[in-house]
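Dear support,

We are seeing what looks like truncated structure output for some complexes. This example has two components. We would appreciate it if you could run it in full and send us the complete token output so we can diff it against ours.
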Amino acid sequence: MSEQTETTTTVLPLEIIDKCIGSQIHVIMSSQDKEFVGKLVGFDDFVNMVLEDVTEYASNGEKVTTRSKMLLNGNHIAMLVPGGAGPQ
Amino acid sequence: MNLRVGSPLISYLIAAYVPGQTGKSLKEKRFSGYGRSANFLSGITNSAVVVKLHSGITYKGTLQSIDGYMNIVLEGRDVQECVGKDSKVVNSFKNDVFIRGNNVLYIGID
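Here is the complete output from our reference environment:
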């Protein structure tokens, strides 16, 4: 894996996400009815994610709930915004 | 039991949590976050969790088991089915509840 990244100049999309680990990330779901903002702890090839101190927003930007820790299913994720502060 | 099905991350988390399951999957760290997430399952197993489905229905209960497909078993006794923003309880179950993974949006600490 590390050899591969050294010999190629392209940056894989998931490598960008890998760099966000430990920092804030804004997650937008594909049905556009939910958004999440929290600290990215880990993720995999399916973009399932472990998040910490998460705030869940409805489509109108209204806060729904907060969770201290969650495992988010990657199936319906549309977009990730590294460092994004949320819908407001 | 084949633990290496579905999500690599969840398989890793299971291997990190279940005693004796220190096989291949613990070595296969594709991304740097795997190690940081390793205590996730120990943090939520046998504690109060909330499982939200894509449909918006929320199940609150005690996590008994999870697999790489995000299939989830909540322990019987007091599993509550909640709907809406105010989490109104519409149903409760005395037996174990199995939730098929494809419906799960997230599982988190209650």
